[in-house]
Amino acid sequence: MAEPRDTLPAWRIVPPTPAPELIGYYREAEAASGVGWNYLAAINLIETCFGRIAGVSTAGAQGPMQFMPATWAAYGAGDVTAPRDAILAAGRYLAANGFGTDPDGAIFRYNNAQQYVRAVNDYAALIAADPAAFAALHRWDVYYYSTAGDVLLPIGYAQSARIPVADYLANHPQ
C-alpha cells in the first residue's frame, strides 16, 4: 500500500459517465475482446473511479483506463480520454496479453502489482455476483489517502499542481 502524502494531487474531479452508458461500453469491449465486462469495470473503478479522476498519473498514464502513451499507441484508437475508446483499448490490451488463458497474468501486465491483480479480481467477482454492486460502486466518491487521513475530493476539485493537504483542508474543512 502507498504511503500517505502530505500533498494532494494535480487532478480534476468530474462527474462520471452515466452507469448505463459505461455498461454499454464494457459489453461492447467484452464482445470484441472476450474480456469480461466486470473485469473492465473493476479496472475502470480502480484506475479513475469510473472516470471521475481526470489527470495524468505520476507515471504518465492518461484517461479513464490510465494508458501510458506507448501502450495507447499500440492498442488505442481515437481519444485516450474518451471512455468508450479507452475501454475498448483496455479490452484489446488484456486480450493481447493472454486474458483468455491467464487472466491474472494479463491483469498483472496492465499494472505490475499483485495487490492490483487481487483488487481487480475482488471487484470483478463482486460485480458478477451482485447485479446491484456496479450501481453502488458507480456512486462512490473520490477519497485521497493523506497524512491528514482520507480527504474527500468532490466533483469540482481542480488543481493544476500538487497542493499541501493542510492548505486545502483550511479552505475545505471536512
Summarize the structure.
The protein contains 8 helices and 6 strands; from the N terminus they run E-E-H-H-E-H-H-H-H-H-E-E-E-H.
Describe this structure in words.
Helix 1 (19-33) packs parallel to helix 4 (83-96), helix 2 (37-48) packs across helix 6 (114-129) and helix 4 packs across helix 5. The radius of gyration is 16 Å and the shape is globular. It has a two-stranded antiparallel ribbon. The chain has a two-stranded antiparallel sheet with strand order 2-3. It has a two-stranded antiparallel sheet with strand order 4-5. The chain contains 8 helices and 6 strands. It is mostly helical and 174 residues long. 35% of the residues are buried. The two termini are 24 Å apart. The mean pLDDT is 97. It has 2 domains: 7-11 and 142-171, no CATH class; 13-138, Lysozyme (Orthogonal Bundle), CATH 1.10.530. The protein has helices at 19-33, 37-48, 69-75, 83-96, 103-110, 114-129, 133-138, 165-171, and strands at residues 7-8, 12-13, 53-54, 142-146, 149-153, 163-164.
Give unreliable regions as ranges. none
The number of helices is 8
Helix/strand structural class: mainly alpha
From the N-terminal CA to the C-terminal CA, the straight-line distance is 24 Å
What would you call the shape?
Answer: globular
Number of domains: 2
